[in-house]
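Reviewer 2 asked us to include a model.

Predict the structure of this chain.
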Amino acid sequence: MAHAAAPGRDPDAAIRTDLLEKRYGRRVALHGLSLTVPRGSVFGFLGPNGAGKTTAVKLLLGLVRPTAGEGMVLGGPIGDPSARRRIGYLPELFRYQDWLSAREVLRSHAVLAGLGRERIAAATDSALELVGLEGEGRRRVGAFSKGMQQRLGLAAALIGEPELVVLDEPTSALDPVGRHEVRGIIQGLRDRGATVFLNSHLLTEIEAVCDEVAVVDHGRVIASGRLDELLQARGAEVAVDGLDSAAVARLGGTMAAPGAAIFPDIAESDVPELVAAIVANGGRVYRVTPRKASLEQIFLDWLEVR
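Predicted model (structure tokens):
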């Protein structure tokens, strides 16, 4: 479940919130958000539409003020100007002036990020190259495809090598090749020690790149944890003969098809004992395949519990 510690100055946490809340009149947009995002990790933030994800992002960036609760980002209170200079942000919905060139867009972001004149040109070139837009710097934004504009927005978020990068649906307008490239960029950010806060409804993307995830519903974190632990194999499919359905049932399994038995509750550490039991009951084992739950199934199970 979600971490719930007070948001003190934790050098190991890029983000820490404690019972963060946002109300608009009587409407509760976010209720009791408590989470911890470790530094140097890729953190997936999941939830159905209307769950409070966008409100949470705005609070973390200091774009709106919380009604109650506390939060720390990069060692300072949420909204702290010195912390905000070290954050890169790609919003889900953004639009640049059509008459600006890609290079002019990125230069303006470099100035806002506080880069000195001597760094702006190099930072702009580096960002364009990183997102696959090298050679397009002088082209007007109005001539860009939707996918190219998405890449430009990502480049703007990466200007100045920020410590924390907040990405809101970063691959929504990209084709499969573009999504693969963005996954590589995210992994590269983690490799250089940056923290990535990834808000996405594409669970396959989350599963491919994230170290930890949190699921928010009705404004609360309902579950969180390390992705590798959440996706740990549970259950096994066994290619077997010599056993009928009744014998398989006595061992805790079901026959999914002739020669294929499913044991849904078997842990990986118990597989040797299972194989021995099958053999002792007259069966022959040809193959054991661990069954691994998808993030999508785990996500749906979490929401169903609610």
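The CA atoms of residues 203 and 297 lie 10 Å apart. The first strand starts at residue 13 and ends at 24. We have added this to the supplementary material.
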